[in-house]
Amino acid sequence: MVISHSSSGPGESAYNTFSSRYAGVELPRYRMPENSIPKETAYQMITDELMLDGNPRLDLASFVTTWMEPECDKLIMDSINKNYVDMDEYPVTTELQNRCVNMIAHLFNAPINEDEKAIGVSTVGSSEAIMLAGLAFKRKWANKRKEEGKPYDKPNIVTGANVQVCWEKFARYFEVELKEVKLTEGYYVMDPLKAVEMVDENTICVAAILGSTLTGEYEDVKLLNDLLVEKNKETGWNVPIHVDAASGGFIAPFLHPELEWDFRLPLVKSINVSGHKYGLVYPGVGWVVWRSKDDLPEELIFHINYLGTDQPTFTLNFSKGQY
């Protein structure tokens, strides 16, 4: 609707929808209204409609948490008017993102030095992160097939049938065959043995889950890595692993530090993680980190200069809020 500073009628308060002349006006639902209404009235009407939503503080079922410290709310509102894609204009925001990427890479035992920058990017949750990781695997596989003079029109990815829907989206949107390992009674995660059996020369990667959407259970990434190492040796392939750590990436390093699931395993080339599944963080924040620069094909990174200096970008969208 159009919001303006239009005044109310004589004796009417625009701040009270119920006692104003707008209380009896039915606004069109699917078309722009012919006339404007006061901004206070528009706010009241939208707020009233939103009252029919559930109470987010009582929502325990949507894979996000719904409360943050007041200081976090203030930080978000202080920065909500920044278009984060303009790194030249907001260099400190960019630096904060880079610090987070490096913190996460070190947490996941990436083989980088203290003074070396990690390879990664913040995303709109783990869904975008998985899309970016999948695209990197697909492009790197296709490049290798081209070099070898082999067909590259039938890529596939191996996952468990328990994967989150974003993996199905990636496969369908980017034309990759999804080969799912079926679950069995009493074993509700991907079986590494069956997964490796499904791998072939067209497999761009095997996706393991650290924290199943259905049960929260960790898949055995260590066993998957060991089995895949052997298969790669036998076949001459170089099939890598991606770890979807959306639900476990910020739990395992602290509660199970001895568990080997991350970049300590040589075939793990990228990891995604969500920031909003653990507590005290609003939805909409995630990251993807790569083992090394070699695991992210350079041709997927765009360089733009129409906002100032050269700025590398690897995201599915362009304009992006600071949070």
TrEMBL record:
The molecular function GO annotations come to:
glutamate decarboxylase activity; pyridoxal phosphate binding
Give the Enzyme Commission number: 4.1.1.15
Which cofactor(s) are needed, names only? pyridoxal 5'-phosphate
Catalyzed chemical reaction(s): L-glutamate + H(+) = 4-aminobutanoate + CO2
For this protein, the record's InterPro entries field holds:
Glutamate_decarboxylase, PyrdxlP-dep_de-COase, PyrdxlP-dep_Trfase, PyrdxlP-dep_Trfase_major
Q: Which of the residues bear the PTM N6-(pyridoxal phosphate)lysine?
A: K277
GO BP of this protein: L-glutamate catabolic process
Q: Does the keyword Cytoplasm apply?
A: no
Ordered alphabetically, the record's keywords are: Decarboxylase, Lyase, Pyridoxal phosphate
This protein's superkingdom? Eukaryota
Any single Gene Ontology cellular-component annotation: cytosol
| Family under the similarity heading | Belongs to the group II decarboxylase family.
For this entry, the protein name equals Glutamate decarboxylase
- Write down the species: Aegilops tauschii subsp. strangulata
